[in-house]
Amino acid sequence: MKDRRPALDSLLDACRRRQVDVVAITKLDRLARSVHHLVALGRELETLGVDLVVLDQTIDTTTPSGRLLFHVLAAIAEFERDLIRDRGIAGLRRAKAQGRRLGRPRLHQVDAAEARRLMAQGLSLRAAGRALGVHPMVVRRALAG
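^ thats the sequence. predicted structure below, dont judge the formating
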């Protein structure tokens, strides 16, 4: 989870300087990443006299029913985010268990036997890399794997 959110920080600074009257967002989960954080932001905005408008859910935090809806939807948004995260982690574990290589595809493929042969001739990693047309770290990875 990101601890620093520069755009949110600058928005809150503008709210604290009384330059903002209303914060309009599309969804609650775009504002905060947890119910606790969302509730704290809601309280701070209320203290500063800044209204919060959530366009997709038509929430008005100036009324008791709007505040209730705000908290309920915040809890649901956090639940959805956790489900998505858990599914992503489960998918990565399944792919790993099936032997799939995760991550970005390698740009260079080096024949490990050829790299070993060059190194056995006394060439350095740099010289072997130059001979194979790759970076020395690519040769090192080929030798290690």
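The helical segments are 6-16, 35-47, 64-97, 112-120, 125-132, 136-144.
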